[in-house]
UniProtKB/TrEMBL annotation:
<dbReference type="InterPro" id="IPR029057">
    <property type="entry name" value="PRTase-like"/>
</dbReference>
<dbReference type="Pfam" id="PF14681">
    <property type="entry name" value="UPRTase"/>
</dbReference>
<dbReference type="GO" id="GO:0004845">
    <property type="term" value="F:uracil phosphoribosyltransferase activity"/>
</dbReference>
<feature type="domain" description="Phosphoribosyltransferase">
    <location>
        <begin position="16"/>
        <end position="220"/>
    </location>
</feature>
<keyword id="KW-0328">Glycosyltransferase</keyword>
<dbReference type="InterPro" id="IPR000836">
    <property type="entry name" value="PRTase_dom"/>
</dbReference>
<keyword id="KW-0808">Transferase</keyword>
<protein>
    <submittedName>
        <fullName>Uracil phosphoribosyltransferase</fullName>
        <ecNumber>2.4.2.9</ecNumber>
    </submittedName>
</protein>
Amino acid sequence: MHRSEHGYGERVTIFDDPVTATLLARLGSPDSTRAEVLANLRSVYAGLCAEAAVDRLPRVRREVPTRMEEKHPGTGIWRGELVDPASEVVVVDVIRGGIVPSQVCFEALSRILPEDHVRLDHLHMSRVTGPDGSITGTDLFGSKIGGPVEGRHLFVPDPMGATGSTVVTALDHYLESFGTPASVSVLTAICTPEFLRRVLEHPANVHVVTGRLDRGLSPDVVLATPPGTRWSEERGLDADGYIVPGAGGVGEVLNNSWC
Ligand SMILES: O=P(O)(O)OC[C@H]1O[C@H](OP(=O)(O)OP(=O)(O)O)[C@H](O)[C@@H]1O
Ligand SMILES: O=c1cc[nH]c(=O)[nH]1
């Protein structure tokens, strides 16, 4: 995967490839149908999940006989590194924007690990706005969490990393009551510099993999510098907590539910 150069530190991966950029440009376009948005979101998350799995999951060396082994004993055997099948993973479904991305990750990880090592949890969450329309926090209304996360690799696919309030609330909930994961990967289709600052400060030692980093409200002089070089001056959030340029309310579009 082509990765963007940036100054946000080693725990951040930003995709830099024209395929992901094209999918995300269509995803955010006012002309795209819901079917296109869904299909593009699935494609983007297949890439984000694979990248996080490569970076975070332990590996083992293995020898695997192929169908050629019978004809070529000893040489018809593939030798190399695989994902360690002992790894255990928990995918977090952040309802509602995260429903489709979490299902994509759950299915993808279930193809590379034993099925009983991959779990899907659900968190019912919603951002809360104050009287002026600005985001004041995130409510966690309920959860279905299938057990501890201690020693497991946590994947949090949340498409729009805006203020970071949703992800931080989710991680607080896990750390308070369900143990310490072996690693935490937050996967966003699009995120802001403000989001990165907030989630990287979290004690869970978060790694972020994002398809795009949007900082469209930054001054021109800052936009002329590589991402993260003048991080404190970068702005990607509008006054209502929406990402600019962003993709609008993705949870709303995906669900045709404007609330
Ligand atoms: O980084 P934050 O500022 O917390 O915002 C991000 C949240 O908004 C979107 O979801 P969705 O539209 O489902 O949620 P909402 O109704 O809470 O905006 C997105 O998928 C995140 O869950
Ligand atoms: O820009 C944003 C911010 C939060 N949620 C979205 O769907 N879009």
